[in-house]
From TrEMBL:
It catalyses: Hydrolyzes free adenine bases from 7,8-dihydro-8-oxoguanine:adenine mismatched double-stranded DNA, leaving an apurinic site. It comes from Micromonospora pattaloongensis. The keyword Transmembrane helix does not apply. InterPro entries: DNA_glycosylase, Endonuclease-III-like_CS2, Endonuclease3_FeS-loop_motif, HhH-GPD_domain, HhH_base_excis_C, HhH_motif, MIG/MutY. This is Adenine DNA glycosylase.
Length: 320
């Protein structure tokens, strides 16, 4: 049975007191989900972590890397990472410094540390196997609401709402007629997305992937392609005339001249080094001494860099 969710109508369900998503197994499949899955089956990008023989560890690595980093940059890094560390145990046995080096220029390098800490926890708590249970996934270092549900869904075929920025925007527009889903994922976003999922877990996982792909390729933030959207006939936002956002315009993040840029330059020198790097060498990276010192202090505070006398090394790369 297929039903249509009327425009501007949200599901009246909710969540348990502990915040766990409540699922109605008798809920029929929506027209929106069915159309999204059909579109996905014909138009989805051919990404390696979507191959049927890819395991949970590879999917977990992809999800961590894809946070705040475009797919085109993740692809070579993901392949290199799994070539070196095909299992959690392989990464757990290596040093944090090597994880930071392999992370390269993907950005937000603390993710490399969290991923290694996650690998260590998987080895210590789960005998080296990525757990299937949602609570066990949520208990891993660096694994939050989105990542845990993504792994449980895409690696193990479970039925969970997988909500990232693209999914939130797609659901907000299609179901609620809202042009923008707001700045952060809320419990209501999980409820609204869960209401669209088919009851059968494997098909629900397919729908989750389809919603994400539609948000990334069709229902984009700046130039939505409504003419190419498979759910345009049931989209509340389109039915209401595609109203523009009413909140303040988000300014794109600057990079040039920021502490982030200085941190990246300092890390680049340390990644290439074969031993401790003296402060005099790091002084050449950036002319502004105060900003350079602030950036270096931030790297130390984040656990990415360690001080060794008058020199610096990547975390876990101390000599001797």
């Amino acid at each position: 049975m297929i039903v249509v969710i009327p425009p501007f109508r949200r599901w009246a369900g909710g969540s348990d007191r502990d915040g766990r998503d409540r699922i109605d197994p008798a809920m029929p499949e929506t027209t929106l989900a069915a159309a999204a899955i059909r579109w996905y089956d014909e138009n989805a990008r051919d990404l390696p972590w979507r191959e049927p023989d890819v395991g949970a560890w590879a999917i977990l690595v992809s999800e961590i890397m894809l946070q705040q980093t475009p797919v085109v940059r993740v692809l070579p890094a993901w392949r290199a990472w799994l070539s070196r560390w095909p299992t959690p145990a392989a990464l757990a046995a290596d040093t944090p410094a090597e994880a930071i080096r392999m992370w390269g220029r993907l950005g937000y390098p603390r993710r490399a540390l969290r991923l290694r800490e996650c690998a260590v926890a998987i080895v210590e708590r789960h005998s080296g196997v990525v757990p299937t249970d949602l609570d066990a996934l949520l208990a891993l270092p660096g694994v939050g609401t989105y990542t845990a549900r993504a792994v449980a869904t895409f690696a193990y075929g479970q039925r969970h709402p997988v909500v990232d920025t693209n999914v939130r925007r797609f659901v907000a527009r299609a179901v609620a007629g809202e042009p923008d889903a707001g700045p952060a994922t809320r419990p209501a976003d999980l409820v609204a997305t869960e209401a669209l999922l088919p009851a059968e877990p494997v098909r629900a996982a397919r729908a989750s992937a389809a919603f994400m792909e539609l948000g990334a390729l069709i229902c984009t933030a700046r130039t939505p392609r409504c003419a190419d959207c498979p759910v345009t006939e049931v989209c509340a936002w389109r039915a209401s005339g595609r109203p523009a956002p009413t909140g303040p315009t988000r300014r794109p993040q600057q990079y040039a001249g920021t502490d982030r840029q200085v941190r990246g330059l300092l890390l680049a020198v340390l990644r290439e080094a074969t031993g401790p790097v003296p402060h005099e060498r790091l002084d050449l990276v950036w002319a502004d001494a105060a900003q350079r010192s602030r950036a270096l202090a931030g790297l130390v505070a984040d656990g990415l860099v360690e001080l060794v006398g008058d020199a610096c090394v990547l975390a876990g790369d101390r000599p001797g």
